[in-house]
Amino acid sequence: MSIDVTTEKRFEADIEEFFLSPAGGYAHNNDMYEPQLGVYKDTLLRFVQRTQPKEWKRFLLQNKVDPERKFCLAFNNACDMDGLISVLRHGFKHRGIPFKVCYFKPESGLNQTAEALYEKNEITCNRQWFYSTDTHNSVDMVLAVNGIPVFALELKNQYTGQNVDNAKRQWMYDRDPREICFQFNKRILGYFCIDQLEVWMTTRLEGKNTYFLPFNQGSNGAGNDGGKGNPANPKGYPTSYFWEYVFQKDSMMDIIQKFIHLQVKEEKKQMPDGSKQVTKKKRLIFPRYHQLDVVRKLIADVKEEGAGHNYLIQHSAGSGKSNSIAWTAYRLASLHDSNDASVFSSVVVVTDRTVLDEQLQETISGFDHTIGAVETIDDKKNSKDLRDAINNGARIIVTTLQKFPVIYQEVDKVAGRNFAIIVDEAHSSQTGSSAMKLKAALADTEAALREYAEIEGKAEDEIDRNDKLVQEMLTHGKHPNLSFFAFTATPKPATIEMFGSQWTDGSIHPFHIYSMKQAIEEGFILDVLQNYMTYSTCFKIAKDTPENPELPESRATKIIKKYEKLHPYNISQKSQIIVETFRETTKQKIGGKGKMMVVTDSRLAAVRYFHEIKRYIREQHYVDMDILAAFSGTVQDGDEEYTESRLNVRKDGSHISESQTKEEFHDNFNVLVVAEKYQTGFDEPLLHTMIVDKKLKNVKAVQTLSRLNRTCPGKVDTFVLDFANKKEDILEAFQPFYQETSLEQEVNVDLIYQTEKELLDYAIYNESDIKAFIDIWNHPGKQDATAMGKMTSVLKPVADRYNLKNPEERYQFRRQVRKLLRWYSYITQVVRMFDADMHKEYLFLSYLIGLLPDEKEEPIDLDGKLKLEYYKLQKTFEGAIKLEKVDGQYVPSKKQGAQGIRQKSTLDEILDKINEKYKGQFTDGDRVMLGALHDKLIADDKLASSARTSDPRIFTESIFPSAFGNAAMESYMEAQDSYGSLFEDKSKYDAVMSALAGVIYREMRSKKTVDYRKIQRNEQVQMVAEESVKYGE
């Protein structure tokens, strides 16, 4: 096969050849296009006359003069009022006469009448479409339905020196949006730019402001881990998916019927006089390729496999999850089997997002009106409304997970009824007790009952179905009538195991992927790690009291760190940096509209930052910043009480309610200080900069920083200034979710027996205690007035034995109980164990934990006993945090949770440890010889290797002295004045060496050391102890 012609015409001809083939399904339109009417008039009239003769006859009686032109005008008027997408789906009326302008393929092939009408559509493809009487311009290709142009294609060929960018310019500058065929939602629904490698598209022509989106599969094909672009196609063009799959005749009609969606949003515009004008902005939503692909693949798999399977969809932020969920819900609700019966009785969407609910309502109402309204069980409704919606077979139900525990026993019989459960932002809550109750409410347990009877060696009718223990165990594992569709950008291991697909090698993977990498490369989200700056806080806290009390180490450590975090000098120094960062960076971004979020680690910190930032703004006479706070509840600071609405005040003096904070931030303010609020699910495209003063880990880090990644016109980058986390921590948090996230193998559920054994070893309860409890809990008949009291009386001796243990044993026992309860809840979501003894123990412990008193912790009063002696902020990193192009894979734990020992230390030792950990690079006059030597020794890799392989005595007596001597001599050469006393006083030398030997050995063995070698550059912010000042004064 030789290649002789590589022109654009040849590219067009190759595409047309497929469209006009039997596989493509199109015909060539030989009628004349009439630009002033915007239709192939003869084609449209022929279709109406052939398919609706009675209606046409009525129309002729009412319009005797020029009826054909009047029909076209009536069609135009309908498009002006309702939009073409509505007219195509629902038709229009003229003087009481209903007309359809096309027919769609029925869900089931059993509806032969509808199938015959669908075949009467005239669906055509024409090249060189001359669309205007004013110009001789033509579009390369047009696709029309019954004479109505619906999609237009500009085709370019790299071999003739042109590509999609030339096509984009053509649509922007050579096509007049005022032409009837190019008016929004009047004719053409999608404008496409296609070359041999890429496809781009838009649904609205706006001249130079026309905005194009990529319509590519992804570098490894749709649904696979990859980046932007398209893979090579050994069978033809890399972009042939466009005409062979997406725009094949039946697929194109399916997109018109079930995907394209008219979105109407209200937008506020500031008028010159200060008033606000509300306008309605309409957008046609055409599915992006991965959205079309995931919905169709899910539906195809359900059609083939039936109900009872789980699907994990790992779609990044910026993937359009809300629309994907809406389309999936609609398609599942209208899905029929080969016998024309609905596959699912109801589709239940589990979400905490009100935005999704509104989007579902809007999207589905634009489709098939026979589905009925979406039943929303929100805060204004209660669990009984959810029960009624399920019992009445509502087609689509939107609710929260927390509503199920109340009604799980009141749902009517579910035998023979299938449910599709769509989980929005699936995460670990899906393994908790509320998720178990969802299954208990909806699961058809007949198959589980047969399995249980077989294990017990009994006939099904011999199993007591009223036995509560049996009822609960039957809901465990997967069920043939429940299909879960879990959408998330950040799947945790539990999520992957619950909803993922197991491969032949035992690893578990998502069903469909649209990665963070692809979303960034395609420009749907911004890379929030591109401009990242970290600061480290170096401080020394001194004891300001002669007392040296013994205190619980972890709690005292937290209090001392909190002292530093909330110290006025710390807050004031960081506030200056925050304000100046806003004025130097944020304010200049997004056309002067850039906004900033400050993430704090406590509500009290948020209040103090709020006051200090306002004070500094006033002091500097800045007038270009307005600040809001966001936190829940009431915060006590000294004698003052603060709430969000009390702090947030408009310029006119009126207070802003919590429900108004988001809107006010978008419209009138530019800095938002938050504490445990707006760190997830908050979409503000104008948010450019984030200041982080809170430790962030794993998914929480990704979710928090992703508040910045939303795109909008003029937003080209983001900026993060992080006071609390290291570059390596953030890289570690983001890396698993950059590409595909998978699980190496399924979790070993038998590890729960290890935890069970550890609990029994405490000798607080035994099997007879469990039996006595179950006899009462599972007593047949209705609960009487003494039942709960009897249950408590059975548990009380166990609680008494618990109270005889020492505090450390009690603490560890409670930890282990909670771990077993969590672990068992998770396991039983994944597998059906039918371990009656374990389930009894789970029930026993779940009630016992309520009777175990929390440890009464003696209050730690360090008020007035601490002072901040040194303080320095150091810039430790500035630049882009580069994610590696590797998949993230979780490896299951081999042991479930090692015990954490709570240590007690003297206040001096605790202060020493904190000051060691946070000591930084001070100047010659900083007097912190011990900390500097510690840092030098801890950086010694050879010493670390010896620590890991030696016992403490050999390390302290034989290995460490030499390393210490070298470090001390190096330090002396660098700063003789500071280290001279060390060599002049042998007892001092030995004391320092001995103290450091133990600390270094412990830290090297536990690998908990901060690596100060990575600090790059100092920022000059230094202090000595100061008196406290009240914030905002």
Give the beta-strand count: 33
Shape: globular
Kindly, what is the distance between the CA atoms of the first and last residues, rounded to a whole number of angstroms?
84 Å
Strand content: 15-25%
Structural class: alpha/beta
Radius of gyration: 34 Å
Average pLDDT, all residues: 83
* Number of H- or I-type helical stretches: 37
Give structural attributes.
41% helix, seven-stranded parallel sheet, 1033 residues, single chain, eight-stranded mixed sheet, disordered C terminus
Could you please describe the fold and organization of this structure?
Strand 24 (634-637) and strand 25 form a beta hairpin. Strands 23-26-22-27-28-20-30-33 form an eight-stranded mixed β-sheet, sandwiched between helices. It has a seven-stranded parallel β-sheet with strand order 13-14-12-15-16-11-19, with helices on both faces. Helix 20 packs across helix 32, helix 25 (698-705) packs across helix 26 (727-738) and helix 35 packs across helix 36 (976-984). It is globular and about 115 Å long. It starts with 7 loop residues before the first helix and ends in a 10-residue tail after the last strand. It is of the alpha/beta class. Mean pLDDT is 83; it is low at 917-927 and 1008-1033. It has 37 helices and 33 strands.
